[in-house]
Amino acid sequence: MNYYVLTLFPEMIRQAAGTSILGRAIRGGRIQVHTVNIRDYSVNKHMRVDDYPYGGGAGMVMEAEPVCRAIEAAERETGQGTRVVYLTPQGKVLNQTVVEELAGEENLILLCGHYEGIDERVLEEKVTDYISIGDYVLTGGELGALVLIDAVSRFVPGVLSNEESAQFESLQDNLLEYPHYTRPEEWRRKKVPEVLLSGDHRRIEEWRREKSLERTRERRPDLLERSFQVTGGWFGGENCGVLVRSLTDAVSRYGSCLDLNRKKIRRQGRVFGERELLILGLDPEAETPEDGRPWRNLRGRGTPLVLVFPKAGQEPPAAEEMEKQGFRVLTVFSGSLQKLSEETREYAIQIRKNLENL
Ligand code: 4GX
């Protein structure tokens, strides 16, 4: 990942980015953090880059021309089509979905404003994304850019070690992390929860999910309102099962998977709730009952649904029928099993974006 940070204070970016995990990532060649000093593109003999606001009022406004030239200097390095992110309290508030989506880019241009802001005309011309790091006011965009770089870089391959891995994180489910413990087993008469010493991984995983939910309910009920319990299910071969499982894991830390081929489920069916998400894989090679509609016993209550067809051009009429059975089809992914498997990550991000917009 290559970041181009356009700023009046390049030293601030270099100092922070050179430290700790980001510093290690730069030295290891996993990321590059370039700075472009907007002042170098001043069109004024005094090197000024700001001027008084039309219409009057307090403070100064950054001029369009130096900002535009600085962006174009970065674009000469990255090529056209690079996303230009302006850090501003008026942007979309950064969250883990946005972070992961940005991590899919090869290059990012980050524009840091100062004073009262930047002349609107260059923003209209050049900025593709308006992003805020939170509902408070900073003295400039640099700390915003650094926060973004830090969070995005965690998803760049090789930036985190195995122990630090960003793969399975509860925030992606809009849930808070469960509590952590290390030695000693008893500290000032406080014991480590017994289940964590049991070695029973299913029970531990269940306990962690419960704690995540409880904690989110107590501390961030606003997140819980937007949280979904993710279930992957598939009809057909094991390859389809593997695909659905990896997609489910990429969408949710606590996702679970169901082999819907099992006779019992086929006969009894299953009802999904409105706070659930079903990711349904339909393998055309599935052994289907007489009428060829293995999904007919699945019911939803406005349940969002993602359909996965691991064979292009052979979509069964499932989407329409599932809508009638109470599901809301969010997206349909189809294509070869191989293509679908390679792009699991992109699909997972798209699914999460869809869920946020529900
Ligand atoms: N998340 N700031 C941008 C300049 C500015 C002033 C007025 C637009 C209008 C911020 C944030 C943030 C402070 C960066 C003001 N831009 N950036 N700067 N919150 O507060 O990202």
TrEMBL record:
CDD domains: TrmD-like. One of its GO terms (molecular function) is tRNA (guanine(37)-N1)-methyltransferase activity. It catalyses: guanosine(37) in tRNA + S-adenosyl-L-methionine = N(1)-methylguanosine(37) in tRNA + S-adenosyl-L-homocysteine + H(+). It comes from the Bacteria. S-adenosyl-L-methionine binds at G113, I133, G134, D135, Y136, V137, L138. Keywords: Cytoplasm, Methyltransferase, S-adenosyl-L-methionine, Transferase, tRNA processing. It is an enzyme of class 2 (transferase). The keyword tRNA processing applies. Residues 1-225 form the tRNA methyltransferase TRMD/TRM10-type domain. Pfam families: tRNA_m1G_MT. It is found in: Cytoplasm. GO terms for cellular component: cytosol. GO terms for biological process: tRNA N1-guanine methylation. Its EC number is 2.1.1.228. Belongs to the RNA methyltransferase TrmD family. HAMAP family: TrmD. Specifically methylates guanosine-37 in various tRNAs. Homodimer. This is tRNA (guanine-N(1)-)-methyltransferase.
